[in-house]
Design a protein that fits this description.
Elements lengths: L1 H15 L4 E6 L4 H12 L3 E6 L4 H7 L9 E5 L2 E5 L3 H10 L5 E4 L21 E6 L5 E7 L1
Parallel strand pairs: 1-2, 4-5
Antiparallel strand pairs: 1-3, 3-4, 5-6, 6-7
């Protein structure tokens, strides 16, 4: 009976937890970036976008080495996120909290979130989500095939 009495308090606590908020730097006309932002929102993230002519400066500010570049750069809860990283892996990153710069999906692989719409004909390319260490090296955080 006591457990049932606590349900409203538990529900209220779950509702009041703030959503992680992304800061995202992208170029104004990038359609795949807009699709990735929708993917984030659909997975419970809040997003603040910053349209810039070039994302190089944002990448430098967030600590992502240029060799991991993609079409947009983001920051969330002290981590950098570069490219079309699936929300599932971002949630894992925020849950596990490794000592790292963040995650990256270099380039723009077809089939990754934001690169998976009808324009791509349901094609999929294998790709890796990389964990970028504090020294700038990477390891595979998750492989997609």
């Amino acid at each position: 009976m006591v457990g049932l009495a606590l349900l409203p308090a538990i529900a209220l606590a779950q509702k009041s937890e703030p959503k992680p908020t992304f800061q995202v730097w992208k170029t104004p006309g990038c359609g795949c970036c807009k699709d990735w932002l929708s993917h984030l929102r659909d997975n419970g993230f809040d997003v603040v976008t910053h349209d810039v002519e070039d994302t190089v400066e944002a990448r430098r500010k967030t600590g992502i080495p240029d060799r991991y570049a993609s079409c947009h750069t983001a920051a969330v809860q002290g981590y950098a996120v570069e490219g079309h990283v699936p929300a599932r892996e971002i949630k894992r990153l925020l849950r596990e909290r490794p000592k790292a710069i963040g995650l990256a999906v270099p380039s723009m692989p077809i089939g990754a979130p934001g690169m998976d719409g009808p324009a791509y004909g349901n094609r999929r390319m294998p790709y890796n989500v990389l964990l970028i260490g504090l020294d700038g090296t990477s390891t595979v955080f998750q492989a997609y095939s």
